[in-house]
Amino acid sequence: MSMTTIAEAAARKSENLEALARRVVRQPGLLPGVFAGLDAKPARTKYGCLKLLRLLSESKPQLLYPELDRLVRMLDSENQIFKWGAVLMLGNLATVDSKRKLDGILEKYLQPISGPVMITAANVIHGAGKIAQAKPRLADQIAQALLCVEAANYQTTECRNVALGHAIESLESFFGQVRQPQPVVDFVRRQLDNPRNAVKKKAARFLKRCLPARKAASGAQKPDAKKRQR
Questions:
Q1: Which of 83, 98, 136, 219 could in theory staple to 177 by disulfide, Cβ–Cβ 3.0 to 4.6 A?
Q2: Domain ranges, ordered by start, for the chain
Q3: pTM of the entire structure?
């Protein structure tokens, strides 16, 4: 398969993109053809290639890591779907970011959380959770950004409520890495009164799962601390 035909294959509805991703992993020389497909005029081709790249970022992030700067540039794309794809792919690359490139662009990455596009914010919230899991040193900075959803300016109040639900789920994924948990707990507790039932349920689940786990972890660390003092 050539670099040209890889993009054409990604465009076919009948194509198994997961199988195609495995083929690119076996033949990394096909990767430039996938990126080239992003510039194709047919929507089916460019979005097929975008989906393929996202699958690769999930299954083989080290393969895409050399292209991280290209993905960062996509954050400024006027094409919202490309922007959303870049956001999610960058989150997936956090596990292999040995050069700490994501650390340097984190403020830019988190910026859409404040609005006005809720879908962009939701994707950032999801990707930010993955970054926090992979880079615990950034967990508090990311948590603080997610708490800002409460005052974010989206198209509607309901959009903000939906984003709050995403924020709770993301915070739950890395709550154990947060060094200052109380602001997060207070934020989640406030959502118990959220008018959106799905958000209330997510808040209740967070408090039920995360607080006991946090207390148990804290209790397990105390004996070790005493040993170190001795």
A1: 136
A2: 1-79, 100-215
A3: 0.90
